[in-house]
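note to self: dont lose this again. the chain is below, predicted strucutre after it. 124 aa total, dont forget to put it in the shared folder this time
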Amino acid sequence: MFDLFKEFHFDAAHHLDMNVEPGHPHSRMHGHSFTAIVTLRGLPDLKTGYVMGFEEFDSALAAVKNQLDHHYLNNIPGLEVPTLENISRWIWQKLIPDIPLLYSVTVKRGTLGEGCVFYGISST
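---
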């Protein structure tokens, strides 16, 4: 079994006033630089030697990145509460139709040293 992964980065704004006390800095709109790490798990195709070709992988990730990068996350359907947990699950839900070998989605805010890994249920 092999794990294949790709990273992509996006910058986005959000607020979390629903999770903090009034006046808390996170209750106001603020932004982060996020890193998403998308991991597939599977066996390489006997003919190509790939678990998944990187061109196909890149294409699927680009579509998701474009929905997040330089956007206000609270306005994206499904991300009204844009916690790391919800962002990682949202990315999973967007990718699983195109990437059946999807194993996990990690979302990090590297400058803060924090992140979340989501392991969904794949079709394999």
